[in-house]
Amino acid sequence: MEKSKLFLASCISLVTTAMVFAIRGDIANDMAAAFHLSNEQLGLIFSPAFWCFTIAIFISGALVDAVGMRMLHILSALGYFVGITLVVLAPRPKAPVASIFDHAGTALLYAGFMIMGMSQGLVEGVINPLIATVYNDRKTQRLNMLHAWWPGGMIVGGLVAVAMTAAFHARWEAKLATILVPALVYLIMAISLRYPQTERVQNNVSNADMWREALRPGFVLLFCCMWLTAAIELGPDQWFPSVMQALAPQLQGVLYLVYTAGLVFLLRTFGGGVAHGAPLATLLVCSVLAGVGLLWLGSLGSASPFVAFAAATVFGIGKAFLWPTMLGVTSQQYPRGGALLMCLMGGAGMLSVAVALPLMGARIDKFGAGAALQMMAALSVPLAVVFGGMILYRMRSRQPQAAL
């Protein structure tokens, strides 16, 4: 088994997923203008990417042991080609539409982002159990290193979008098509590599035992927390380029997304050991910082770039370890749950973003960009209470790594 190549293929597939996220944010305004969409309609068109991300994660959690991680990885790459083709070729309506399903073009946009969401979900459903299996002695650290390439992919996607705009005044369709390059690379790698069985299968854990792990109170609590951590991290990220353009118009909004993504990349790459050693404390601190950062960003008005970058720094540090550490805690404390529990966590995270996006879009339409960010900041309060309570419980029980 070629661990390093499997890790590399996982990283490239996550880069592809993140490029979709970053470039979708960059082209949002141009695409909305081309199709005469309101922010709420645009949020609805983007939301199936997250609903289907969730469905694909749940499906892969149930099928990955039977079908194999390699086959699902290949299917995820092929989905990007289909989804992007539908979006790029969708016909434009000549006037605003009352419903996105009233015109073939906007309906095809919905379908294209839905298929891309399926691909993104299959990627997440494969690479998390794959890395937990290959590096079963350093799960949280390696998962943080892997998920460093989520912001890494956003940096790549953001810079590609900025460069194509500055150098070529490229159309949004051309920017979206660049996602096919890394998709092709990891498709070729997935076809050529040999994948292991999942950790759960290797340890002969039955399906019944795996499902019983999902009913344990501690996992149910983590599952609920994942809805909030993912919404805080990924909900604002999707709107970040257009939101920051409104709050700090001196610079292209996508540059703030690239900047926070760079912070997250560095912290996950070099700080994964910290999260591995004290995962609950990491989650507590990050939740508080993410909330403070969003609250600050939401109060900027037309701020200078310096102040905007300072607020974005707090938010970037806060969101850095949330997603991979939630997955790492789940895999470390409930290893008998295998790919199923990790997929349930990932599915919960993306489902929450699917709900958050149109809510943020509607709030932007009614009250402005700052109000939408401040709404998301409030989610950090219950997270701080829960993670703080979990730390106190483990301190009193004197079993800091024990599962509830």
Q: How does this structure look, described?
A:
- With 404 residues, this protein is mainly α.
- It has one domain (3-397): Growth Hormone, Chain: A (Up-down Bundle).
- It is 82% helix and 0% strand.
- It has 18 helices and no strands.
- It is globular, with a radius of gyration of 20 Å.
- The two termini are 34 Å apart.
- The mean pLDDT is 88.
What are the key terms here?
mainly alpha, Growth Hormone, Chain: A, 0% strand, globular
**Terminus-to-terminus distance:** 34 Å
**What is the CATH class?**
Mainly Alpha
Helix/strand/pairing class, anyone? mainly alpha
CATH third-tier fold name: Growth Hormone, Chain: A
- CATH H-level superfamily title: MFS general substrate transporter like domains
Uncertain segments? none
Tell me the strand percentage band: under 5%
Order of helical and strand elements: HHHHHHHHHHHHHHHHHH
CATH architecture tag: Up-down Bundle
Give the biggest beta sheet.
Answer: none
**Tertiary shape:** globular
Mean pLDDT: 88
Number of strands: 0
Total number of distinct structural domains: 1
Helix content: over 70%
SS element count, helices: 18
Rg over CA atoms: 20 Å
